[in-house]
Amino acid sequence: MIRVQREPFDVAAETAALLAGRTDIGAMVSFQGVVRAGEDGDRVSAMTLEHYPGMTERALERIEAEASARWPLQASLIIHRVGRLAPGDPIVLVVTCARHRQAAFDACAFLIDWLKTEAPFWKLEETASGERWVEARATDAAAAQRWQTDGG
Amino acid sequence: MRILYFAWLRHRVGRASEELETLPEGVRTVRELAAWLATRSPGFREAWESDGVIQIAVNHEHVTDDVPLDSSDEVAFFPPVTGG
């Protein structure tokens, strides 16, 4: 399941909903991405996330389907927020459920690595010296690249 | 045809979207559309000419600039994505 939303998410409620009525799940891994203020002197006071309605949801669904094809997942969830967020606010939640922990860990890492490079989101940071668009990072591309060769 | 711009490209072009009733004369591919848009927008031209920076989607699918276009397509131009 995937969602793009402006509202905050409730991790306890989301994970409880995934487990409700299930007795086949032995491992649940969750990841939250959080807005970071950055370094002293160049601190981010707010971050606005923009997406491409329609394409973004389709990309997230495709990435989730790819994870389910590579690992034996019982359930998964991606929630990505958009709009203006402050340092300390959660941006993204990825949850993976499997019978055993290794699949859940690996699939969760794969999902977050892939959505950083494949899902259409853009970030505008506000700092004391003005606004700036966050550039794509080579380290994120490298993190996603590793799944091309050793995934699942 | 609906054309969309995102993130800093939207700022440089000065609009989020525009509509074309028909394909401009001589435009058959994304590359040709981009060349036509570049004649109308210096901000678009500068971004497009930075090799490999601008990504393209046609009807919500990532594509390369040689794909053919139809007047009913939705075409989006955007910088590299930064989710997560």
Brief descriptors of the model:
heterodimer; A: 152 residues; alpha+beta; Aldehyde Oxidoreductase, domain 3; four-stranded mixed beta sheet; four-stranded antiparallel beta sheet; 4 helices; B: 84 residues; Ubiquitin-like (UB roll); five-stranded mixed beta sheet
Please provide a written account of the structure:
- The complex is a heterodimer of chains A (152) and B (84).
- Chain A is of the alpha+beta class and 152 residues long.
- Chain A has four helices and eight strands.
- Chain A has a four-stranded mixed sheet, sandwiched between helices. In chain A, strands 5-3-7-8 form a four-stranded antiparallel sheet, with no helix packed on it.
- In chain A, helix 3 crosses helix 4.
- The two termini of chain A are 20 Å apart.
- In chain B, helix 2 packs across helix 3 (42-48).
- Chain B has 84 residues and is of the alpha+beta class.
- Chain B has three helices and five strands; from the N terminus they run E-H-E-H-H-E-E-E.
- In chain B, strand 3 (55-58) and strand 4 form a beta hairpin.
- Chain B has helices spanning 7-13, 30-40, 42-48; strands at residues 2-5, 17-19, 55-58, 61-63, 74-78.
- At the A-B interface, helix 3 and strand 7 of A face loops of B.
